[in-house]
Amino acid sequence: MSKSEKRQREKLVKCRCNDAEYQSINKKAAAAGLTMSEYLRRSALNRRIMVRTDIRMMNELKSLGGLQKHLYSQMQETMTTALSRQYSEVLSSIVTAINLLDMTPIPAEDIKDR
Predict the structure, then answer these.
(1) Which domain of life is it from (predicted)?
(2) Statement to judge: residues 67 and 82 lie in one domain
(3) Is residue 10 part of a domain?
(4) Which domain holds residue 79?
(5) Is 14 helix (H, G, I), strand (E, B) or coil?
(6) Handedness of CA 15, 16, 21, 27 (dihedral sign)
(7) At what angle do helices 81-100 and 55-74 cross, to 10 degrees?
(8) pLDDT reading at 5 higher than 70
């Protein structure tokens, strides 16, 4: 959004809501990576709102997998069968967790309130 668009937004719209409604709007805006104002504008104007995936979580899992693989290679000289099996299970679990991350964006309105 350009600065000229921000300057054009001079009208303030107020809306009252209860705590549950506020929390729901706030959660959906955060999931979409938007401010509450931008989320409400897009909602009111029927514009697309897509939830961003948590890339940080995926990167952290990849980092943990790399560290686990590094430890495995460092322990080759003193590796036992049981220890090798444990390393393998941890790496397998990390790969499974990465694969379970759904990288498909979803509409923010599909996020369920709890």
Answers:
(1) Bacteria
(2) yes
(3) no
(4) 55-100
(5) coil
(6) positive
(7) 170
(8) no
